Amino acid sequence: MLYNEPSPHEVKVLTRRFGLADSASIKTYLKTDGYVAFEKALKMKPEEIIEEVKVSNLRGRGGAGFPTGLKWSFVPKTSPKPKYIVVNADESEPGTCKDRLLIENDPHQLIEGMLIAALSVDAHAGYIYIRGEYRYLIDIMDKAIAEAYEHGYLGRNLLGSAFHFDAFTHTGAGAYECGEESALLESLEGKRGVPRIRPPFPAVVGAFQSPTILNNVETFCAAPAILRDGGAAFAALGVPKAGGTKLTCLSGHLNKPGVYELPLGFPVKKMIEEVGGGIRNGKKLKAFVPGGSSCPVLTAAECEGLTMDYDALAKVKSMLGSGGVVVMDEDTCIVKVALRVMRFYAHESCGWCIPCREGTAWLRKLLQRFHDGHGQRSDIVLIGDLAKNMLGRTFCPLGDAAAMPTISFVEKFRDEFEAHLDGRPCPYEPANRLAAHLVAQ
Amino acid sequence: MTLSPHLEAKFAKLLTSYPPGRQRSAMIPMLMFAQDELGQVTQELVEEVARRIGCTPLQVEEVLTYYSMLHKKPLGKYHVQICTNISCMLTGGAELWEHASGKLRIGHREVAADGFFSLEEVECIGACSWAPAIQVNYDFHHHVTPEKLDRLLAGLRSANAV
Amino acid sequence: MAAPVKLTIDGKAVEAAPGTLVIDAAKLVGINIPSFCYYEGLTLQAACRMCLVEVEKAPKLLAACTLPVAEGMVVRTETPVVAEARKYTLEFLLTNHPLDCPVCDKGGECELQDMVFRYGAGESRYSENKLHVDEKQWSPVVFYDGPRCILCFRCVRICSEGMGVGALGIVNRGAVSEIAPNHGDHLECDECGMCIDICPVGALTSGTYRYKTRPWEMDHVGTICTHCSNGCKTTLGVRNGQIIRGNNRDRSGINGEFLCIKGRYGFDFTDHPERLQSPLMRVNGKLEAASWSVALAAVAKKFSEVRARHGSFGVIGSTHTTNEENYYLQKFARSVLGTNHIDHHRSGDVVTLLDALSGTAGSLSTTADLYERKAVLVVGADLSSQQPFLAFQIRANYRHHQARVYVVTENEVREDGIAAATVRVDKGGELAGVHSLAEKLKTESELVIVFGDSIKGEAVRELVAFGNSLGIPVKYVALVDYSNSRGALDMGLVPELLPGYQPSNQPGMTVGEMLESESLEVLWVVGANPLESAAMKAKDAFVVVQEMFLTETAQRADIVLPAASAYEKTGTVTNVTGEVQRLKTGPSTMGAKPDLEIIGLIARDMGLAAAVGPWIADKVFEEIRATVKGYSVPMAIISAGGAAHTMPVNGRIPVESRPDLIHSSRDNLFTSGTLGRYSKMLGSVMEGRQA
Q1: Which domain holds residue A251?
Q2: Does some domain include residue C303?
Q3: Are residues C443 and C517 in the same domain?
Q4: Can you tell me the mean pLDDT for A175-185?
């Protein structure tokens, strides 16, 4: 099912079957070039598959943006251990709701992507780790898996070859941290979702102590298109060093929020104004988060000339992340946003390491007090200072994810923090607006 | 512990879904599927799952208390989960939460006296582009307004009032 | 051996084996990188972030506890950036940590306090509410104060990895994570207290010690545990002549960080209210208090009379008294009283083992061998329950060196969980079980065989023959029960053997024979309780008992002389593997005297002191070193509190071994013969289990 109208600006590669009748069925899939790429890959050597993915400039769609072909090439060729494919469908980054659509509307594309990855490293089993909240996707995925077995795309001697592959769904149970790949593997093994010490990385020691390809749903879903149409064609859709399209989740104060497949390098202003239909109620843009709540916030001014791709966003010290674009209008209280973001990370911190466990809890309480009007001037410095001292010092990236936006909120919207000082109520609460207006006069 | 045939079948499949000696992997799915039927994770279930996958009840306890969707206390027949994370907050999620809490007269992770509804303020449920969003049990509801929520809750009540 | 890796830490050149972690490599050059969660020998965590260091070319600080050394690596451990990071981490930690240091048991020995002091993180900018949860009692031994917990997970790891128990876990998530026991609100475990000792802060405290004292008010006396035969060093915290706690502060013993409940908490028998503090004499059929001089004079008088008419003396020695006391006692008995009726309770067939090994060298295992040798075979013993340190060594060997462990026992044992092969046998079927492992054991490169009292007499010879048939180096441990069971044998507290396993060539009576004898005129019992389970036939015999408590035997005595415990005296003891270590005097109990002194005073009052020599432990030990085979151990090791391996004999022992007399008491973790009966802590754990 689709939950929003498509946009004419979309370049539909991964979402090409969205909206087709019975798009999740293998019947529809096979009618629309389904499993063609897998057939092609079956005839290729593993290194040729990896090379094609490298050529595509596909970068990981989960948030870190690591080159996918390179990641696959790290799986040791000579390891006597079985190899595994693990799909990260633990989509939990606030602002992100794309993997859900990919599985809901086109589950076979994911299976085909897993098969291609499996061929590239000679893996024979794969697990799709789906966040617990997406229970209905497990049913959809299980049905697709059953269809694939029936049609000989899963199981033994696939398409008459010596290759065999089994796929399983696995449910999570509510933990953002399990989106971190090593925590996901722990969870897959029936443990607390606490990250592992890295290195070794999953490519070498992953699921069940064995070499593992672990990627986001969207990353795997790109593989069939890459193999079918060639890596170069996929690369050409994007920008240099980052090929293809990105499922972009527009949310917040937009007229037409929704999930849209846009080519990498899409202009931010056009994305907000044309794809997203502009800020609702005719308001002005105040800020936006380009790739999920862990990315540093960008101001309206920073949108000028900015494009949605890894390098362009890195240049302005933010990230493409998972593609969760959260747009905030002029009436948004940034302190409240900072508080809500920190509440989330404090709730999701696994508790393993001190700076993240204690830092997020401290910042949550501090921001709550601050937003409630009990802040002091020194608190503004303290918020930034604490966040900076979490950054880069935690056991896993969750600490960074909490710190980065916080630092950016304080640095870019210090005036809003100051507006909450001296016992003043939040000037953006509708009830307080008149009072704030009078004070300003 | 006697489980329903449906659950037995699920457990049996789970035990063969992971590599040999890795039955512990089935722990979380077992707890989730069983909770769906039992309404909560009971101590009896903890011990049963531990026995089936060959680990200690403490190891199950460690895991189950880590994950926010696993509950040791019973939930309502309909567990109303309201997202107030950033995208939903920007579009009225917080107000929706206040509304629901006032309407049902229960707070975060509380169950109404008749056990019909329970309420939880949840973190991002992956419906940001169609915010504000809620889940009732596993069902998503998008673009929810207080009025829509009222109708939804009333609908659930009347559907069950036989 | 791979070439060492060369790196630089704080400007100092370091060479370390490949794979060494930077935190350990730093120690090689005297640099201590701080940490809470890193604990040598336990799995890595990288959780506390205290060990972050600067590494040249690395974009951010790295955790030294998980960072292997690399060629040319340049590490800086105390730069301003590093110090700043640590200061912040400490500030984060202190946000929810209660600052109740003034009443915290850990105050003064708290790693968090020390670290805050070191990094000057004394000022906090935290002005929010602290999380609070109430303290919980999980067992008679273990209390947990959640807010103090810094979640370093040392306790969880030592319990699961070190002890093989896994009674502690981590529950909840984020800032409200906490440690949880295995049975909801309480613990069912070994009650070893390892979790308490390893806790860097005051989160885990012990039922015996909490709120009793400040650590600096105590003297810390590292001595040898007086319970089982394993010979662990325990550090007694002594204040005003009283033991306040036992712990592992002094990790210099053979046991390293290990102690079981007995070593850690089983000291409380020393100030049990029923402890004897005055000699007792039977007056009109009742035991009444008497002065030392009167009691000793009475003993001396009686002994002199009986000796003068060559009457029959029976002497029963102890499995807890020191080598010096045992040696002195048998010397007195044999040379002064002229009797060879001297014995003690035997619990393992060391005699046959030594005889069977005659002519071989290096066949007696040490406790260190159990940690280092590539394979271990356990025969007929529940080590984790009965010989807990030996079990700990084997588990550590398995974890650190992937040792292969083989188990042949009647019942399930904890070692099954780490065993390469387990054979379940019926009682008496142990040897057959061992033989069934022959092919597997032949593939090993070396082996230690540990066997209990079901292997005795001919079975020991068969076991050694089996060991010889494997074609690999094999070492042995014959298990015995108590802290100086081995020393009692070594010192000749047996009728058929003199010290050093020299044949006595004079048939004397065994314990059983003494009790059965109707003509025995004097029975002298030093630290034993033979009448607990047997009756004494010689109704008119004069019974002298040296004891701490009014045991069944003491109740039968004509004169009871209050004895000092092992914690109240000096001397040496020899553990199950023949390692001799020295006791140190901790507390003192008014009225009680060490057995050595008591024996000496009896000799003095008999006017025969010159015949036995001075009753000074060091002097007696000199004599032992000079005259007892295998005991010419280096004094330097003994004096420094180390363990010296004795090699009692290396030749045949031409006596009839008495396997019929060998029975282990099979004390478990919570029993300890007479001492256990007078330990409230051990008693309360037992009660809790029965409830």
Answers
A1: 245-329
A2: yes
A3: no
A4: 97
Domains of chain B and any CATH numbers: 5-64 (1.10.10.1590), 78-160 (3.40.30.10)
CATH number for the domain including A297? 3.10.20.600
Looking at this predicted complex, what is its ipTM? 0.97
* Judgement on whether residues C494 and C635 belong to the same structural domain of the protein: yes
Domain count, chain A: 3
> Both C316 and C453 in a single domain?
no
Band (pLDDT 50/70/90 cuts) for residue A285 is very high
Average pLDDT, chain A: 95
Residue pLDDT, tens place only, C104-135: 999 999 999 999 999 877 788 999 999 999 99
Q: Are strands C242-247 and C233-239 parallel, antiparallel or unpaired?
A: antiparallel
Distance of residue A33 Cα from the nearest chain B Cα, in angstroms = 29
The answer to whether C46 faces chain A, any CB pair under 8 Å, is yes
Considering the domain architecture, whether residues C322 and C374 belong to the same structural domain is answered as no
Which among A329, A360, A393 is the end of a domain?
Answer: A329
Q: How many angstroms away from the CA of B2 is the closest CA of chain A?
A: 22
Scanning B83-142 for CB atoms below 8 A from A yields: 84-87, 89-91, 123-131, 135, 138-140, 142
Residue B22: which pLDDT band, with cuts at 50, 70 and 90? very high
Distance CA C565, CA C587 (A): 9
Residues C561 and C633 in one domain: yes
What the block records as the tokens of C300 is 């001396």
C577-611: per-residue pLDDT in tens? Answer: 999 999 999 999 999 999 999 999 999 999 999 99
Residue A16 lies in a domain: no
Q: Which chains sit next to A, with 3 or more Cβ pairs under 8 A?
A: B, C
Q: Which residues of C358-390 are buried (b: 16+ CB within 10 A; e: fewer)?
A: eeeeebbbbbebbbbbbbbbbbbbbbbbbbbbb
Count up the domains in chain C and report the number.
Answer: 3
CB contact under 8 Å between A353 and C49, yes or no, is: yes
| Token reading at B96 | 């929706």
Same domain flag for C403 and C496: no
Q: Are β-strands C313-316 and C242-247 bridged in parallel, bridged antiparallel, or unpaired?
A: unpaired
Residues of A in contact with C170 (CB under 8 A): 192, 351
* Radius of gyration from C-alpha coordinates of chain B: 18
Domain's final residue, options A308, A329, A350: A329
**Banded pLDDT at A429 (limits 50, 70, 90):** confident
Query: Is residue B161 predicted with pLDDT exceeding 90?
Result: no
Please tell me which residue of chain B has the smallest CA distance to A2.
Answer: B130
Return phi, psi of residue B125, to 5°: -105, 5
Q: Tell which A residues from 297 to 336 touch B, by Cβ distance under 8 Å.
A: 324, 326, 328, 332, 336
Residues C562 and C531 in one domain: yes
- Cβ distance C172 to B65 less than 8 Å, yes or no, reads yes
Among residues of chain C, what percentage have pLDDT more than 90? 93
Residues C573 and C638 in one domain: yes
User: Torsions phi, psi of A94, nearest 5?
Assistant: -50, 130
A277-281 long-range Cβ contacts below 8 angstroms, 24+ apart: A278/A254, A279/A253, A279/A254, A279/A255, A279/A327, A279/A329, A280/A253, A280/A254, A280/A255, A280/A329, A281/A253, A281/A329
Cβ of residue C580 closer than 8 Å to a chain A Cβ: no
Give the Cα separation of A285 and A283 in Å (integer): 7
Domain assignment of residue A436, yes or no: yes
**A208 at the B interface (CB within 8 A)?**
yes
Q: Which residues of B touch A175 (CB under 8 A)?
A: 66-68
Residue A251 clears pLDDT 80, i.e. is over it: yes
- Is C406 in contact with C375 (CB distance < 8 Å)? yes
CATH number at residue C24: 3.10.20.740
pLDDT at A428: 86
For residue range C294-336, what is the model confidence (pLDDT) as tens digits? Answer: 999 999 999 999 999 999 999 999 999 999 999 999 999 999 9
The number of angstroms, rounded, from the C-alpha of C519 to the middle of its chain's C-alpha atoms is 40
pLDDT for A427 equals: 84
Mean pLDDT of A294-303: 96
